[in-house]
Inverse folding.
């Protein structure tokens, strides 16, 4: 009964969101010549937190040097991994051994998705990652979209499966507390993350920060922490549910929600003129006031 109740709670919490996003197939990936060096870098599984961080940082450097927008998410993710590594070393978690396995297993989901995509084996790449990688290679989205597409795929999709694989029992409450402690680690990174994205990819982001104050940081943190809470609930359902049809429904909902969210991030309901203005803002070639005026004009036309 407990497992069945877990599934019902998960379904109830997300049914509106799942209905709104619908079920859509991932778009075809753009033509891309595999880079054997990148495949080789990610061929072996990660075995330690230090090893995962070193190879992720190496991949980020190579992608940035090549002008490959898949580096955007890695700029965020490598800093997250380094911060969690530091928190483990500082004794901020009750179960340091579990958190090391957590961090390595989580990173390995990304490694496998990237490696399969780079090989051209797109059928082996989860749909949220196909949207994220394909969008990054197309290079026509906002830098913020590239970052959030990666965050969506890794947190809203990979994290629940990581927790399922690791096992959230025994000592579920203790493990849950450690899982939640990462939110505090992430809260300390938001400003540095935004500064890094502005410095490396989108100088106009500093203008956005000045205009909106703490709102954009708060939204970024909320999206990550809410996704992490969702991942835990999904892992609980996947662990507790024994009835096969209910497990199938949970897996379908997990995949569909993450894929639908990717499509929403990739193609938000915003006029193309506004999106073009925001791209110019990111590149520091257009004023934010002009972009906001364009958005206001679009809203006036609708209403």
């Amino acid at each position: 009964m407990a497992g069945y109740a877990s599934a019902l709670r998960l379904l109830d919490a997300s049914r509106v969101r799942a209905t709104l996003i619908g079920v859509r197939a991932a778009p075809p990936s753009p033509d891309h010549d595999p880079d054997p060096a990148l495949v080789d870098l990610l061929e072996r599984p990660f075995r330690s937190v230090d090893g995962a961080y070193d190879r992720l940082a190496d991949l980020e450097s190579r992608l940035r040097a090549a002008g490959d927008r898949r580096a955007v998410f890695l700029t965020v993710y490598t800093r997250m991994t380094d911060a969690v590594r530091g928190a483990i070393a500082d004794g901020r978690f009750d179960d340091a051994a579990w958190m090391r396995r957590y961090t390595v297993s989580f990173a390995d989901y990304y490694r496998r998705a990237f490696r399969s995509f780079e090989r051209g084996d797109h059928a082996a790449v989860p749909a949220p990652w196909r949207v994220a990688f394909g969008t990054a290679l197309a290079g026509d989205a906002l830098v913020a979209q590239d970052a959030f597409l990666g965050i969506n795929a890794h947190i809203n999709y990979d994290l629940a499966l990581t927790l399922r694989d690791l096992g959230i029992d025994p000592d579920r409450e203790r493990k849950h507390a450690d899982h939640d402690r990462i939110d505090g680690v992430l809260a300390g990174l938001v400003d540095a993350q935004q500064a890094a994205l502005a410095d490396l990819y989108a100088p106009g982001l500093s203008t956005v920060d000045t205009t909106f104050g703490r709102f954009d940081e708060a939204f970024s943190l909320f999206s990550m922490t809410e996704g992490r809470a969702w991942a835990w609930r999904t892992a609980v359902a996947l662990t507790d549910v024994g009835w096969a049809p209910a497990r199938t429904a949970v897996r379908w909902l997990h995949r569909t929600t993450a894929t639908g969210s990717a499509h929403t991030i990739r193609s938000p309901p915003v006029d193309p003129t506004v999106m073009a203005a925001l791209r110019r803002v990111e590149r520091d070639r257009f004023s934010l006031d002009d972009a906001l005026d364009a958005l206001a004009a679009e809203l006036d036309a609708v209403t």
In short: Residues 1-8, 10-23, 209-219, 285-289 have pLDDT under 50 and may be disordered. Residues 2-268 form one domain.
